[in-house]
Write a structure and sequence with these properties.
Length: about 650
């Protein structure tokens, strides 16, 4: 039934914290580029030199450069890509960013050719021409050749960033070149004006221009943290961890060492040869220290990972040996793990389901609820269902209790869900059997030929027979849940005492008890009170059995009167003493057997009620005898006293 597996709409993909940081850095670089360019244009518009140049002695950012930076920052914003976002939904934004990339790239390339070939097409002085020419310089609005080259790299990178896979690698290469181009100018500024003047293409590049090239180049790489050159750096593997730790250090420390060596040489502490030796030795020491620190750090990380691996192995063994079905899935509902308990419960092997959507084992009527599970789990809330259903491989339904909990990565971010399903089929069968037993008990009590009622510890009615209702004039009243003392508010205290003794665990009975009705008439009862117990052995209430024996009691009285009359008549007629004795024995036999025997059997012919009167009548206790053998076993014969009474004509056999 694997064809039943289908997936819901996907959830957003999960990113690790450092990958989210990369995307934030990319947006920050774009915002810095746009904002710096805007401030430079404002500086040119309102003659504020502090906005065009960091220091008066430093070159200023040209208007055309500011415009290109603003366009590049805008393109970075258009090309932003959230985790799991589809590129097909951003066609318009990508097209606009590519157009910007072409404009920025052409501006850089044309300017570079202007500076190399010595001609001008006038794009450098489109804005603020008067302010630019006030200094009397030649081509005052033209950006530096290195700046023009940097914009060529940036334009190409922006244009290719959303292209086919090979072109995206080329885009990242151009991003690296743009960052390297800016770093050369930035390092030259760090080392001082004398160093900057010796690098001709960079001597007119503004310092904030250099910084922005570095930021934009790194930002373009960081905007796609899972692709190309960035993938190894942002991976969760140990190489990625080491790369993220070492990359900033190996990028900054050599610059610092070079600056210290340069400043010492300028101060006259040593000559160039000595400075070179110092720089070389310092670099070797630095690299060795980094190597030692990396080794120490990697050993510690590896130790932690080994401990985590041992813990995971033990946890996996516990999960795999569990009788409960335990599986994990991502936020799209794709099954990631499947233990042996799940194989046993659902019938699928791990190989059949891993990588498939979990909805294949969920009946359609429960799938909407399952979608809500993932939504709640994605928000960090566990979900519990005491009773739900899943589908077995053979198509049958499996009743389970379910607990779905969020699964978090090392950073605490929710990346999926775990599901623990416990088979409650046995409990369901037990509940069904209990309901069936309760229904049988209810029917037995309701249709019992005697007055029978079942009460809880507060003397509230739980079950009551029709005969009870009839005998006490309660036929049209719903008694279930009502207290017995509300139904009979004038009940004598001696009956309340009997009830309490029964609730204390005693079994009480009375063969003949006089009861005064509310209408003044007398009623004779045979009754029994006995406690019933819950599963834990505690008394749950009492059962009262009451049989109206008024008629039989009156019959005994009448028979006694008749016996006396017969005795008197016999005396008067001078009958023989032996005849009188025989009649007395006959009358006594009638008196001894006047109580009716009560026998009841279930539908299989098994006796469930056999009162003492029945024992006295039949002379035997109840036995598990097949119904077909009742007549022979209990000696029930036809009038000829030889032929057993036919089974099919027995009243009890007809009843069942």
């Amino acid at each position: 039934m694997m064809s039943a597996f289908h997936a819901p709409p996907p959830h957003p993909a999960v990113e690790y914290r450092h990958q989210r940081i990369c995307r934030s850095l990319a947006l920050g670089a774009g915002a810095a580029s746009f904002g710096t360019g805007l401030l430079a244009l404002i500086g040119w518009a309102f003659a504020v030199p502090a906005l065009t140049s960091i220091r008066p002695a430093f070159p200023s950012m040209k208007p055309i450069t500011a415009i290109c930076f603003m366009l590049s920052g805008g393109a970075m914003w258009l090309l932003r890509l959230h985790a799991g976002e589809s590129r097909s939904d951003r066609t318009g934004q990508v097209l606009a960013a590519r157009v910007i990339g072409v404009v920025v790239g052409l501006a850089g390339i044309l300017t570079w050719f202007e500076s190399r070939l010595g001609f001008s097409i006038g794009i450098d002085e489109v804005l603020f021409r008067a302010a630019l020419r006030a200094g009397g310089a030649v081509n005052p609005g033209r950006m530096a050749a290195a700046t023009a080259l940097g914009f060529g790299f940036l334009g190409a990178s922006l244009f290719l960033l959303e292209g086919p896979r090979p072109l995206r690698y080329l885009s990242q290469a151009f991003s690296l070149l743009a960052a390297l181009n800016g770093m050369i100018g930035l390092v030259a500024y760090v080392y001082g004006q004398s160093a900057l003047q010796q690098i001709t293409p960079y001597n007119s590049m503004a310092v904030h221009t250099s910084i922005l090239f570095v930021c934009l180049g790194i930002g373009l790489l960081a905007s796609r943290p899972k692709f190309g050159f960035m993938a190894p750096i942002t991976s969760q593997h140990i190489g990625g961890l080491m790369g993220r730790w070492l990359l900033p250090l190996v990028s900054i420390l050599p610059i610092i060492l070079g600056w210290l060596r340069w400043e010492g040489e300028l101060a006259g502490h040593y000559n160039t040869a000595v400075g070179l030796v110092i720089f070389t030795v310092s670099t070797v020491i630095m690299l060795n220290l980094l190597l030692w620190a990396s080794t120490f750090w990697l050993n510690r990380v590896d130790g932690q990972r080994r401990q985590a691996l041992d813990r995971d192995v033990k946890l996996a063994a516990i999960v795999d040996s569990s009788e409960d079905a335990i599986l994990s899935k991502d936020l799209d509902g794709t099954i990631l793990s499947w233990n042996k308990g799940a194989e046993k419960l659902y019938g699928y092997s791990a190989a059949e389901v891993i990588g498939r959507p979990v909805y294949g084992i969920i009946p359609r009527e429960y799938q909407e609820d399952a979608l809500h599970f993932l939504e709640e789990v994605a928000q960090g809330r566990p979900v519990r269902r005491e009773e739900t259903a899943r589908r077995h491989k053979d198509g049958s339904l499996v009743h389970v209790s379910l607990l779905v909990s969020p699964v978090r990565n090392a950073e605490g971010r929710i990346i999926g869900a775990s599901s623990i399903a416990h088979d409650i089929s046995e409990r369901k069968r037990a509940e069904a059997a209990l309901r069936e037993s309760e229904e049988r008990l209810r029917l037995f009590i309701e249709h019992a030929p005697a007055a029978l009622a079942m009460f809880d510890r507060d003397m509230r009615y739980l079950q009551v027979s029709r005969r009870w209702r009839t005998d006490y004039g309660l036929s049209d009243r719903d008694l279930i849940g009502i207290c017995h003392y509300e139904v009979f508010p004038d009940i004598p205290e001696r009956w309340k005492d009997v009830h309490q003794r029964g609730l204390a665990g005693q079994i009480l009975h009375m063969e003949s008890d006089r009861f005064q009705r509310q209408d003044g008439s007398e009623q004779w009862l045979r009754w029994e009170v006995r406690p019933w117990r819950r599963r834990d052995g505690e008394i749950g209430g009492i059962v009262i059995f009451a049989e109206d024996i008024t008629e039989s009691t009156l019959s005994r009285e009448q028979l006694a009167a008749q016996a006396q009359q017969l005795a008197d008549t016999a005396a008067e007629l001078f009958k023989s003493r032996e005849a009188l004795a025989e009649q007395a024995r006959t009358l006594q036999s009638v008196l001894d057997n006047i109580n009716d025997g009560l026998i009841a059997a279930d539908s299989r012919g098994k006796f469930i009620i056999w009162n003492p009167a029945a024992y006295r009548i039949l002379g035997k206790s109840r036995q598990d005898v097949p119904p077909e053998q009742w007549s022979e076993y209990y000696r029930v014969y036809l009038p000829d006293k030889v032929t057993p009474f036919p089974y099919e004509d027995l009243p009890l056999a007809k009843a069942i």
